[in-house]
Amino acid sequence: MSQPLSHHGRILYLFVIVLVLVTGMVYIWRWVQPSDEVPPLTSPTSTISTIPPATTSSTNVVVTSTLPITQASSTEPVTTSTSMITGNVVCDATKSICVNVDALNKSFENALAVTGTAQVFENVVSWNVRDASGTVLGKGSTLAQPAATGVANPFAFKVWLLSAPTTTTGTLNVFEASAKDGQPIHVVSVPMQFSSKMTAVRIQLPKDMAQWTQLSYNIAQIGQGTAQRDALAWETHTVMIPFTSHPLEATTRVLLDTLHNINGPAMAYDLLYFSYASPHAYVTIRADVDGWAGVSAFQSVVTPIIEQNLKAVPGVKDVVRGTTSDGNMVSPDALPL
Question: Does residue 246 surpass a pLDDT of 80?
Answer without folding.
Answer: yes
